[in-house]
C-alpha cells in the first residue's frame, strides 16, 4: 500500500478529508448496520435536534505506526466506555462498545495510506462524533441519531521536544457541580470558547479552571487534565468534589505508568489552588491525547505569577512520564496488557 505523498512532519492540527469515514444511524429504536462512506458531508433537517438543543458528543484518539510497522491505536475501549456514558447523560442511545472499537478499526483500515509513517511524529487523528438528526421543536430527546467517525492526519504536537507553556486561571467557569463537566460533550466547549480566545489574546496557551462551587480547588484546563509533582517527587492528580473533571484517558494511563512502571508515589485528591500559590509544586503538566503532556512553566492568576518549573525546559518528572507513555504507545516499551491495540 502506497502512503499518501504528504510532508508528514510539517502537518498541523487541522482537518483534511481522507478516503473514508464511518457512519451509522439510529432509526426506529435501533442502530443500523453502519459502514464506510466516501461522503464527508452530512445533510440534516433544519429542525434536527443537534441544531436546537445541542445533543452532541465526541471522542478523540489516534492511530499511528509503531517501529515494527504495525498500525495501532491506544486503549480505544476506554473511548468506547466514555462515549457510552456521555451519550447516556445526554439522553442519546449509547453506541455499543464492541461496535465502537470495530468501527474504529474498520475506518482506520480503510485509510491506511493516510496513517503517518513511524518516526514522523505525526498520527492519524480519529474523531468519533454522535448527534441528534431527528427533528424536535419541543424540548425533548430526538428519536434519530447519527454516529460517525472521521479520520484526518495531524502533525507532531511538538516538533522537537515538549516546550513549557504559560497558562492562566480563567475568570470563567468550565463546569457546574452536578453538570456536564465529566462528559465529553461539545456543549462544554461552546461556552469555553470566549475564555479560550481571551486567554490566547493575553498570551496564554490555555486556561486553568477552578471548581465553580468554591473557586478554591484546581479542576482542569479547557481540553486537558492537569497533573502536578510536589517537592517530594509525588505525582499529585486533582480530583473533583463535584465530579466535574473530564476523565482523561491519558491522565488515567499516566497514573498507572507513574505508580506501576516508574515506582512513584501517586496521590489522587482534591488540590487547593492555595497549594499552587504556596509553591508546593515543582512541576505541572497538561495531559490529553493530542500532546500527551504539555509541561506547564508558569501559572498566572490575575496579577500573581506563579513559577512552577519555569519556561526554560520541561521538568525531569514530566519528561520521564511523557517519554515512558509515548514509548509504550510506540511499542518501544512494554506496557500493560491490552493498551496498544493492533489494527493492521
Ligand atoms: C478530551 C478531554 C481531555 C483529555 O482526555 P484524553 O482522553 O486524555 O484525550 C481533558 N479534558 C477535557 C475537557 C476533554 O474534553
Automatic annotation (TrEMBL):
Its EC number is 2.6.1.42. It holds the Pfam family Aminotran_4. Keywords: Aminotransferase, Pyridoxal phosphate, Transferase. SUPFAM superfamilies: D-aminoacid aminotransferase-like PLP-dependent enzymes. It comes from the Bacteria. It is an enzyme of class 2 (transferase). GO terms for biological process: isoleucine biosynthetic process; L-leucine biosynthetic process; L-valine biosynthetic process. Its cofactor is pyridoxal 5'-phosphate. One of its GO terms (molecular function) is branched-chain-amino-acid transaminase activity. Pathway: Amino-acid biosynthesis; L-valine biosynthesis; L-valine from pyruvate: step 4/4; Amino-acid biosynthesis; L-leucine biosynthesis; L-leucine from 3-methyl-2-oxobutanoate: step 4/4; Amino-acid biosynthesis; L-isoleucine biosynthesis; L-isoleucine from 2-oxobutanoate: step 4/4. The modification N6-(pyridoxal phosphate)lysine is found at residue 184. It catalyses: L-isoleucine + 2-oxoglutarate = (S)-3-methyl-2-oxopentanoate + L-glutamate; L-leucine + 2-oxoglutarate = 4-methyl-2-oxopentanoate + L-glutamate; L-valine + 2-oxoglutarate = 3-methyl-2-oxobutanoate + L-glutamate. This is branched-chain-amino-acid transaminase.
Amino acid at each position: 500500500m502506497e502512503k499518501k505523498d504528504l510532508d508528514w512532519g510539517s502537518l498541523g492540527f487541522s482537518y483534511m478529508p481522507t478516503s473514508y469515514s464511518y457512519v451509522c444511524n439510529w432509526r426506529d429504536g435501533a442502530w443500523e448496520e453502519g459502514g464506510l462512506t466516501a461522503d464527508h458531508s452530512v445533510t440534516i433537517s433544519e429542525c434536527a435536534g443537534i441544531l436546537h438543543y445541542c445533543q452532541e458528543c465526541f471522542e478523540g484518539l489516534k492511530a499511528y505506526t509503531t517501529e515494527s510497522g504495525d498500525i495501532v491505536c491506544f486503549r480505544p475501549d476506554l473511548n468506547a466506555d466514555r462515549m457510552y456514558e456521555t451519550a447516556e447523560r445526554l439522553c442519546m442511545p449509547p453506541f455499543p462498545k464492541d461496535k465502537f472499537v470495530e468501527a474504529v478499526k474498520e475506518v482506520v483500515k480503510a485509510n491506511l495510506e493516510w496513517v503517518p509513517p513511524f518516526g514522523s511524529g505525526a498520527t492519524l487523528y480519529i474523531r468519533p462524533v454522535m448527534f441528534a438528526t431527528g427533528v424536535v421543536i419541543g424540548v425533548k430527546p430526538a428519536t434519530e441519531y447519527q454516529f460517525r467517525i472521521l479520520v484526518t492526519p495531524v502533525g507532531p504536537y511538538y516538533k522537537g521536544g515538549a516546550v513549557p507553556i504559560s497558562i492562566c486561571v480563567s475568570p470563567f467557569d468550565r463546569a457546574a457541580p452536578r453538570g456536564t463537566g465529566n462528559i465529553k460533550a461539545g456543549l462544554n466547549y461552546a461556552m469555553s470558547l470566549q475564555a479560550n480566545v481571551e486567554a490566547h489574546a493575553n498570551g496564554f496557551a490555555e486556561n486553568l479552571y477552578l471548581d465553580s462551587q468554591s473557586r478554591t480547588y484546581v479542576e482542569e484546563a479547557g481540553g486537558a487534565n492537569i497533573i502536578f509533582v510536589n517537592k517530594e517527587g509525588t505525582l499529585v492528580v486533582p480530583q473533583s468534589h463535584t465530579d466535574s473533571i473530564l476523565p482523561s484517558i491519558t491522565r488515567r494511563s499516566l497514573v498507572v505508568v507513574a505508580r506501576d512502571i516508574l515506582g512513584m508515589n501517586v496521590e489522587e485528591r482534591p488540590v487547593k489552588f492555595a497549594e499552587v500559590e504556596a509553591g508546593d509544586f515543582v512541576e505541572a503538566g497538561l495531559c490529553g491525547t493530542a500532546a500527551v503532556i504539555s509541561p506547564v512553566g508558569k501559572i498566572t492568576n490575575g496579577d500573581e505569577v506563579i513559577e512552577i518549573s519555569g519556561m526554560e525546559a520541561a521538568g525531569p518528572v514530566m519528561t520521564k512520564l511523557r517519554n515512558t507513555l509515548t514509548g509504550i504507545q510506540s511499542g518501544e516499551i512494554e506496557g500493560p496488557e491490552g493498551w496498544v491495540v493492533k489494527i493492521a
